Fold this sequence. Notes:
Number of helices: 18
Shape: globular
CATH class of the largest domain: Alpha Beta
Number of strands: 7
CATH architecture of the largest domain: 3-Layer(aba) Sandwich
Amino acid sequence: MKILAIICEFNPFHNGHKYLLERAKELSGCDAVLCIMSGGFTQRGDMCIMDKYTRAKHAVSGGADCVIQLPAPFAVAPAEIFAKGAIKILLSIPEVTALAFGCESGDEYEFFKAAELFIDESDKFKTVINKKLAEGESYIKSYAEAFEACGGNRDIVANPNNVLGFEYCKAILRVGADIDILPVKRVGAGYNDGELKENYSSASAIRNNLTDIRISDNIPPYVYNDLKYSADLRSFHAFLRHSLFVARPEDMQKIFGCGEGLENKLKSLENTSIENIVEKCTSKRYSSSRIKRILCANALGLYADDAQKFLGADLYIKPLAVKKTRANEILSALSKSAYPVITDANGKGLQAEAERCFCKDGYEFAVYNHINRTDKKDYMILV
């Protein structure tokens, strides 16, 4: 079996995601589509509007054959760690031969060429980015200018989807993996476009307009029908504030991207709203997504040194949802992984670091249940 992989969050699954699955499968000629998806919290530090099993069910209904979990220590982390963790797990499955992702521009050659230039950031790159930051440029713009100064195509790192694709290629090259990539050009709205479109709105626009009937044109009916179970954002913010209040600055320094006194500024605002904390801490140097990710990682106890250890350890494959008609062959393919397949909430028998990582996933799932006052069970489902 040849498996096409897609790294995703599906928050929520929409028409653009369905197009990606269909187009990527067509281009790859693979026999099955495997998604590796975040749990209840995202790379930008948000809580997903629906739980991981509901979103995994939507993905299988929309064309995937199986959805496995991206462990929380990688899912709520900077793009490089997010990509490294996902690629690490996917490459443990021998049948995975291709990786598809949405992009605004670029082809396979351009993405790999850019990745080859920047597997290790050069002294010139660091000099340029530090100079631009000192001049008051934003981190994203400084990174793009440094990238261009070193011979790269700045369009590759000018938007979130392309950045993730670039990081996937870097992770693949670092381990010398033999895997094809399929950049699929996005249709409709851009990644951060908050305005509802006719058929292909961004996930951000859909999340921001959950009570607008027009979103029904942008998501499959089976997703729309489940939106009534949307997550409790107010309780999530209360949980973030409580976690910040009880956190120690020295522990917050262990979180990716939290240093240079940022932990003290966050603590100084602990008695204000999450919206105010994010606004006051956002700057050209620190994006709002970075601030939200730090707050979320703090609340979930996700630290950089743990993630680095997990990247160097044998982990596990945790299926969330599998297409019922293909369950036997899909699970058989997964069983050939170098890592054990875990279909329930019991990580018994895992090696020490894998067990610690598995416990992080378990805690994340329990937190999601608690915030949303639900009692979902952490078992694989058939769709």
